[in-house]
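User: tokens in, sequence out, please.
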């Protein structure tokens, strides 16, 4: 099975014909549904209908309920609640496919092969995507090989850089983004059950959905005191919450807006290489977030000043790291908008980008 990240997934979604089904395999809580919803609803303007098949107890939840047609006396299925009113294509996201009951999977077989359910055809151009969570604790039903063969299958393993780009675009609280930037190991985790003294204990560990809940919790809060740390511990676990509290004190030092709009070398007093590495990433995340075309001249001018400062302070590794960000496919827009058209900016980093295809 081939492993893909977020950039590759978006390319696959955009180039796979509608009649071909896609299956994503990966851990729970890594953002599969969020990415699909954002791509299809926001970018493609197609309605996305999600089903958690593992929670369905009856095929009627998917295909609708049987009733008697009073005109001809025949039994037929009523259209389910999600069925499109107009003849416009939709996206069906079948989550937890490997937790579905066998009778649910029978309906999925017809859907994936013929784009029909209970004799009704989906609008032309409709798309079917499924997802399964790996790990034996999620497996209820063995998937029929004939069903599996109807999908293009990919292991979805998004990087923490993918998540930071997404989080920045979706306005996840900057303190959460900064923490994951420094502590990527805390981004993904799994909730595990363990037995102790015959009592069932649940150890809470972080995942991507949990960090979004943390963001929603603290967005309107300036100061994270011990009471909030306690709440956060219930969302992402004790270790993550304690380290998150420590990281908040560093954030003001690594603000990209200060560099891009109010450049002053005093901003960097006491900076070490790792501080510059984190600041470089923050700068690219900020530039990637919105269309900065109206501020382009000022931003480019301060970027040039920043790189010159790095050279003068003899942080050549930081300059090389800055240039390496241009090779990140997540920042293609930044490359096009700010660097390709700026001879001065390209001159400052030219010696570091020989291996980068512009």
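Assistant: Sequence out:
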């Amino acid at each position: 099975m081939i492993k893909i990240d977020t950039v590759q997934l978006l390319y696959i979604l955009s180039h796979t014909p509608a009649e071909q089904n896609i299956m994503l395999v990966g851990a729970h809580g890594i953002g599969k549904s969020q990415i699909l919803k954002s791509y299809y609803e926001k970018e493609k303007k197609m309605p996305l209908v999600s089903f958690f098949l593992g929670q369905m107890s009856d095929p009627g939840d998917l295909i609708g309920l049987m009733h008697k047609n009073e005109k001809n006396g025949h039994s037929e299925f009523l259209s389910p609640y999600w069925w499109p009113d107009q003849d416009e294509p939709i996206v069906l996201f079948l989550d937890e496919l490997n937790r579905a009951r066998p009778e649910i999977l029978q309906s999925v077989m017809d859907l994936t092969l013929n784009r029909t359910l209970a004799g009704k055809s989906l609008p032309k151009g409709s798309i079917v995507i499924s997802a399964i969570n790996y790990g034996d604790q999620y497996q209820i039903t063995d998937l029929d090989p004939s069903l599996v063969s109807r999908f293009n299958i990919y292991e979805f393993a998004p990087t923490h850089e993918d998540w930071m780009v997404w989080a920045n675009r979706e306005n996840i609280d900057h303190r959460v983004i900064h923490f994951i930037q420094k502590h990527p190991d805390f981004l993904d985790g799994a909730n595990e059950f363990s037995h102790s003294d015959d009592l069932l204990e649940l150890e809470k560990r972080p995942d991507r959905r949990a960090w979004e809940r943390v963001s929603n919790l603290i967005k309107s809060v300036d100061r994270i005191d011990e009471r909030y740390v306690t709440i956060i511990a219930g969302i992402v676990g004790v270790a993550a919450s304690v380290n998150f509290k420590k990281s908040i004190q560093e954030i003001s030092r690594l603000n990209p807006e200060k560099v891009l709009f109010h450049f002053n070398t005093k901003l960097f007093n006491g900076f070490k290489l790792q501080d510059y590495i984190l600041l470089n990433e923050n700068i690219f995340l900020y530039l990637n977030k919105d269309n900065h075309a109206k501020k382009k001249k000022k931003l480019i001018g301060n970027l040039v000043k920043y790189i010159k400062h790095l050279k003068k302070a003899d942080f050549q590794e930081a300059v090389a790291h800055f240039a390496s960000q241009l090779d990140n496919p997540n920042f293609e827009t930044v490359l096009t908008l700010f660097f390709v058209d700026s001879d001065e900016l390209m001159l400052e980093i030219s010696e570091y980008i020989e291996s980068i295809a512009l």
